[in-house]
């Protein structure tokens, strides 16, 4: 990737790893598809780290601007898909 992931200096190393794993899951949905349950697991962990809606929006908007991948659209598609389905953007 030719960009940096939007992160917070207040996060622990484990939290940074988990947030990057979420961003990578969104990328995977665009590039080759990802299991819905895997994506939602990583999103739930992201929400534990970033519980604020406004902070989530700020980070995901910045991520979309840098990468071109919409985590919002990806999660919406996953939320509307049945368990076990593969999400491909």
What would you say about this model in short?
The chain is built from four helices and two strands, in the order αβαααβ. It has 89 residues and is mostly helical.
Describe the structure.
The chain has 89 residues and is mainly alpha-helical. The protein has one domain: Orthogonal Bundle (Annexin V, domain 1). 64% of the residues lie in helices and 4% in strands. It contains four helices and two strands, in the order αβαααβ. A two-stranded antiparallel sheet has the order 1-2. The relative contact order is 0.21. InterPro entries: BH2638-like_sf, UPF0223. This is UPF0223 protein BC6307_13365. Belongs to the UPF0223 family.
List the helices and strands and how they pair.
Layout: H1 13-31, E1 34-35, H2 36-49, H3 53-67, H4 71-79, E2 86-87
Antiparallel strand pairs: 1-2
